[in-house]
Amino acid sequence: MDKNKLFFIETWGCQMNAEDSEKLAGMLKELNYNESDNREDADLIIFNTCCVRENAELKVYGNLGVLKKLKDKNPNLIITVCGCMMQQRDMAEHIKKRFPFVDIVMGTHNTQMFPQYLKKVENERTSVVEIWDKEEGIVEGMPIHRSYDMKAFVTIMYGCNNFCTYCIVPYVRGRERSRKPEDIENEIKELVKNGYKEITLLGQNVNSYGKGLEEEINFAGLLRRLNNVEGLLRIRFMTSHPKDLTDEVIDAIAECDKVCEHIHLPVQSGSTNLLKKMNRCYTREDYITLANKIKTRIKDAAITTDIIVGFPGETEQDFDDTLNLVKKVEYDSAFTFLYSIREGTPAAEYTDQIPDDIKHKRFNRLLETVNLISEKKNKEYEGKIVEILVEGRSKHDNTKLMGRTRTGKLVNFKGSEDSIGKLINLKITKAQAFSLVGEEV
Ligand code: 5AD
Ligand code: SF4
C-alpha cells in the first residue's frame, strides 16, 4: 500500500486564517494526507497568507523564495498559496510571475474548491490560478481538522462592512454575512460531544451578528442561546467594534455564566480627530464612556485593544491623546501596530503620511506605557483566587501545568494531570510581565 502523503500548512494572520487552515487540513485528511511537522518532508506545502500590514506580505515573499530549493530537490512537491493576500488586485498574477514554481493560487472565497484544484494538479501536472472576486453564500459542513483538543474557534460571521480607512480586510474578505444560529449551535454541540470545553466565537465585528438572517437574532441573543449548551464550560468572542457594543450585549456578558469577562475592544487611536479620519464612528469620549460602563457592569472584566501608531496626519497632540487614553482605560493588554500603507484603501492616498523615525519613536513610547499598565493589572491578581480552565502542560516548563483565567490570563502552576480539561480554583502567588503563577487551593 502507498505511504500516505504529507502536508504542511504555514498560516499567517488572524484567527480567520487559522480557521481556514483547519478546514484545508480537514479536507486533506479526507484525501488521506497526513500532517507533517516540517516543510522538508512534505509532499504538499500550503502558505495561507495575510495582507493586513506590509510586513505580513514581506514574510510570504521571503518564505516563497526559500521553497524554490525544496521544489528543485523534489519536483513532485505541490506548492499552494492562498488567503487574504491573494484577493488583492493583480496579486495572483504577480505571484505566478515571480514564483513560477507555485502550483495552486487561490483566494479566500473558494477554499471549498481546494480538493478539486489539488486533483487537477496531481493528475494533469498543470497549475491552477483561481481567485473569486465575490464571496458566495456561506459553505456549511466543510470537514475541519482542529489544531487544539480542548478549545475551538467557531466563526459566527464572515467579512466586514466597516471600511475603516486604513484597513484592507473588507476588500479581501467581502461583505458581512452571518451563519444561522442553529448551524453555530449544532457545531458547538458536536464539539462538546468530542470533548471540547471552550469555544471562541469569531468575526471581524461580532456585535453586528445576525443582520440579514431570516430568524430575528442579535449577538446578545446568540450568547444567551449558546450559554444553554450543556457540557460547554466557557464562551469567548472576538472582535468587538466599539460602535456596535450595545447595553444588551454587555448585559448578556454579565449575566451568562459561561461567557467570559474579556472584551477585545480595538480603539485604534485616542484622538477624536484621527478616529474620524479612520472612519471608526465613535469619539474618544464615547469610547471612554463605554469602557467605564463595561467595568461597572461586568465585575472584574478585562479589556484588551488594538492601537495603530503613525496614522496619516497624526500630530504629537493626537499621539498624546492615545497615550492618555491608554492610561485612563488601563488595558490588560494591547496589540500595537505601526501604520502600514495598504494599497486600495483610502488612507493610502492621504498625503500627510508620517515619517518612519517618528512612527518608531512613538511606537516605543506607547509600548512602554502599555507594558507598564499590563504589569500593574497583572499585579492586581496577586493573592486572589481565580477560576482556571486547565489546558495542559506548560510549554516552557514541562513540570508545570498551564491554564487561563476567565479574563484570558495565562497561569502556570504545579498540579496533577487529572485536572486537565477541568475548571479549578487557583490562588495567584506571583504576577509576571506576561503571565501569572498560581497554586492549588
Ligand atoms: N496598518 C497597521 N495596522 C493595521 N490594522 C489593520 N490595518 C492596519 C494597517 N493598515 C490593525 C488594526 C486592527 C488589527 C487587526 O490590525 O489595529 O484592529
Ligand atoms: Fe478592518 Fe475596521 Fe473591519 Fe476591523 S472593523 S476588519 S479594522 S475595516
From TrEMBL:
GO terms for cellular component: cytosol. Its cofactor is [4Fe-4S] cluster. This is tRNA-2-methylthio-N(6)-dimethylallyladenosine synthase. [4Fe-4S] cluster 2 binds at C160, C164, C167. Signal peptide: none annotated. It comes from Clostridium felsineum. It holds the Pfam family Radical_SAM. [4Fe-4S] cluster 1 binds at C14, C50, C84.
